[in-house]
Amino acid sequence: MAPSKQQIRKDEWERRLHDVQVSKTDLNRLVMDYLVIEGFKTAAEEFGKEAGLASPVDLDSIESRMNIREALQRGDVGEAITRVNDLNPEILDTNPALYFCLQQQKLIEFIRQGRISEALEFAQEELAPRGEENPEFLAELEKTMALLAFESSPSAPPSISELLSPAQRMRTAGAVNAAILESLSQGKEAKLVALLKLLCWGESMLDERAEFPKLDINE
């Protein structure tokens, strides 16, 4: 028989939470980190002035990241690559997986636009040689080329049809954004998001031993 869980009353739980001291400076840094990572340049500028807190990165780089993300979200991979190289050419030079990801997205956009002859030529000249060097790249290329077989058929497997979804563009944009942040010696994920994940993990561990008021993340 499993041991009974410890019961923690709401008033006791709230008292323990209130006893935890967090400095306003640390909270301000969390907010600034979130604004920078998520790309809210104007908000970061205003918050920095109000809190007397300097941004951990050049705020102009935030605008550059957002321009790159917006280009990818509308399917303009060529502009995104140009902007990444303008920002720091070493990002793609030293990250073949990221460069392949962008080239794959460009191939997807050719197929989306019905530019089949260009898609085939681009795949053969730009992606096939990279696929020969890396089995993972080859698998992704084959999956992308399968779009041609199914076209817009509703019978296409989800793993194939999802390549044409907005989520695919978002994944590509997220990978590029993370690489740019890493090049700036900045975290890839907002610390506030990481703390929420840690909170959820901590609650799941504590839930095995105690009954306590849980935080509703959805609220």
From TrEMBL:
UniProt-listed PROSITE patterns: CTLH, LISH
Protein name: CTLH domain-containing protein
InterPro entries hit by this protein: CRA_dom, CTLH/CRA, CTLH_C, LisH, Ubq-SigPath_Reg
Domain CTLH: 61-118
PANTHER family, sorted: RAN BINDING PROTEIN 9-RELATED
Transmembrane segments: none
Pfam families assigned: CTLH, LisH
